[in-house]
Amino acid sequence: xxxxxxxxxxxxxxxxxxxxxxxxxxxxxxxxxxxxxxxxxxxxxxxxxxxxxxxxxxxxxxxxxxxxxxxxxxxxxxxxxxxxxxxxxxxxxxxxxxxxxxxxxxxxxxxxxxxxxxxxxxxxxxxxxxxxxxxxxxxxxxxxxxxxxxxxxxxxxxxxxxxxxxxxxxxxxxxxxxxxxxxxxxxxxxxxxxxxxxxxxxxxxxxxxxxxxxxxxxxxxxxxxxxxxxxxxxxxxxxxxxxxxxxxxxxxxxxxxxxxxxxxxxxxxxxxxxxxxxxxxxxxxxxxxxxxxxxxxxxxxxxxxxxxxxxxxxxxxxxxxxxxxxxxxxxxxxxxxxxxxxxxxxxxxxxxxxxxxxxxxxxxxxxxxxxxxxxxxxxxxxxxxxxxxxxxxxxxxxxxxxxxxxxxxxxxxxxxxxxxxxxxxxxxxxxxxxxxxxxxxxxxxxxxxxxxxxxxxxxxxxxxxxxxxxxxxxxxxxxxxxxxxxxxxxxxxxxxxxxxxxxxxxxxxxxxxxxxxxxxxxxxxxxxxxxxxxxxxxxxxxxxxxxxxxxxxxxxxxxxxxxxxxxxxxxxxxxxxxxxxxxxxxxxxxxxxxxxxxxxxxxxxxxxxxxxxxxxxxxxxxxxxxxxxxxxxxxxxxxxxxxxxxxxxxxxxxxxxxxxxxxxxxxxxxxxxxxxxxxxxxxxxxxxxxxxxx
Length: 694
Hints:
Blueprint: H1 6-12, H2 18-29, H3 35-50, E1 53-57, H4 64-79, E2 83-87, H5 90-107, E3 118-120, H6 130-133, H7 162-165, H8 171-185, H9 202-206, H10 227-237, E4 240-244, H11 245-252, E5 264-267, H12 273-280, E6 283-286, H13 287-301, H14 306-321, H15 333-353, H16 367-387, E7 394-399, E8 417-422, H17 426-434, E9 438-443, H18 453-458, E10 474-478, H19 485-488, E11 489-493, H20 507-520, E12 524-527, H21 531-544, E13 549-551, H22 557-566, E14 571-574, H23 576-581, E15 591-594, H24 605-616, H25 621-638, E16 649-653, H26 657-660, H27 664-670, E17 675-677, H28 680-693
Parallel strand pairs: 1-9, 1-10, 2-4, 2-5, 3-4, 5-9, 11-16, 11-17, 12-14, 12-15, 13-14, 15-16
Antiparallel strand pairs: 6-8, 7-8
Helix pairs in contact: 2-4, 2-5, 3-4, 4-5, 11-12, 11-17, 13-14, 13-16, 14-15, 15-16, 20-28, 24-25, 25-27
């Protein structure tokens, strides 16, 4: 069916328009009409019918999930064209697939030609492998290369702490977790890791799961019981498929068959898409990874690895001597030669791991050999990418343990390593995610500095010389928010403080934090640019004030957030995951502290390379990269304050540049439209009044 024929088909089938269906869904939910939600639903329906991309900002409280799900379900069923919906976080994914989407499908189902079919699709490693559980694979080892999308979201699984995943995980603890996994395997109907609550460590989960490359596929003797294969079969039959940005990242790299065929892509939490695609396309190479691949080849493939052992030693010597920096002109010649040696050795061993021509195939495929082939193929592909002639498309750099925030690797040992990441992802998104389909991008924070151009550029919608193509047809729409930010919140900028330097926190800043927290009576969410700054501030406030102060890292994040929400006197300090992942309405969060404008680190290799590329093209690298990054985080962080129409409070930014710098207006326009002041007395008085109201 031609896209333009969809409205006619809907009318012919007697299907009500999008707004009527939205009213029915909202009524079923027990909600009330919201003008912003209706404006969004109209725009999404119009974009889908017209085949034009849409970037729509829907503030907190708009009800954006229903705003896109109603037109998506209507279109998918009426036109028989599949819609894929993607989220960045597991929390929203759960909400969409377990609550919002089933509700919409049921509420409007009587008005559609047939019931809507829905499905959830994740990376292979997120599902239990029945064959591995029953002993079909050798005892697992640390994953050599974390495949993008395969382990995405592991940190979000309930009950999974960092300590539980590391080398220190006790044998008893690991054994207990595996026993619980085996018991759960007898009960689960999905094999989906997210259905296991509380969760288990990454190491335990590896005992019962495989990656897509390690899977035997159609040759598996237990294919009929395969959970990931069932999920993919269901997705191929569904009208609406819910997935995640990590899967979009794999698809954006050109991997075929990652997602089922679809005509419409809806990206929720779209402000995170570019970073998730970048993460999926980023690879690294280290001696432990090379040695691990060689070990699997020897143990499970019976292959001689002497040539790779020699290449590994040469690589280790080379990478140990490289400076921990970015290489704008590509790897130095000696480094390229060492990486090429790893590439050539991996290629040779791959040929050794192939079955001999004419050899009798075993009745049951050799899973150990499959694991060895998978690891060696990944090693070859990474080394081949890094050793290629410089094209300017990749950013290459070297990192060392303890430098630039980098710590011990997943093998338990710190090691120098090389990294490669795409210079830009706009072309990947445009080519592999949007070609011949309509994209709908939505979030509460997409209009930065009052315009959609910065985010539209990252989605590949603006075209231009960098992409070598003309701009796509797209529309930007802000449907507003039900909140009156000017009356509900104050933006206080500490103009009198010195500009933040390299130190985690200064005495002036700590004095400011203490005065504001004391005025608020606790009730503070502290958002810091580094873990060091968060810890320093938490320790100082514990000494100075008589209020409980929690700090990210004290316990698992969901536990800390629950404690913070339960006691209004409590403060919670932390870093990036708190900037975007906390939803605490009510009196427990009446002060949001931001220690400094969250510009990217000066030594961030990818963003510094992107800024340089913009400047070489005649643009403003600082504004397009650094300021845009900061604006997005400020918008997200400030958005933690007002979550309902009853919330009141203060956002305090302890960085005078937000009031004095030439780019301050761009940043402030990206934040909620709070009433603004630089007078601390005004902010303190407001906080005291709110504290007395409880």
